[in-house]
Write a structure and sequence with these properties.
182 residues; seven-stranded antiparallel beta sheet; 3 helices
Length: 182
Amino acid sequence: MNNKKVQYTKKEFKIDLTWKQRISSMFFTAIIYGAVLFLFDRNQNINSIIFQAIFFGVLFVLIFPWAMKKMLGKRVNNIVPELLDEEEIEEEIFANLFRGVEGVGGKIFLTNQRLIFKSHSLNIQKGQTNIEYSIISSVQKRKTAKLIDNGIKIITKQNTEYDFIVNDRDDILVKIQNKLNS
């Protein structure tokens, strides 16, 4: 067995937007929300609509992401899978795994022995899913909600399907394929 220790970079949950992106997002969100308010309730005072739209823009572009980072950050950053003897983590990937209708948030860990998905503590369905590389028959692209190109489907030799949502799908597909080919 190869005794070489593999180093990987631990990924940390963060939301990085420039102030220009934040201000333009706030402006866009406020305009859309204000227009919707105006269309659905034309009897409402225009000053009230403007105030509500600005409040909504600030709330959902500044305060909500900050609160999510505070609430999720530590839970996501501290996910640690249960490893086997001699098992080492080689890659860590933020992901969601569909378990029924719930998109369970967590991380995929590519190890020297298997693919592991471990959920964070805010999910309804918690736990670890282990997929041995030897039982994977195929890894393919999939669309989330038949629209968004950010899904991966892993099919085992027993025809069990695992649907993941990831960022950088093509890069992650290559990494998983490399694990299957080695």
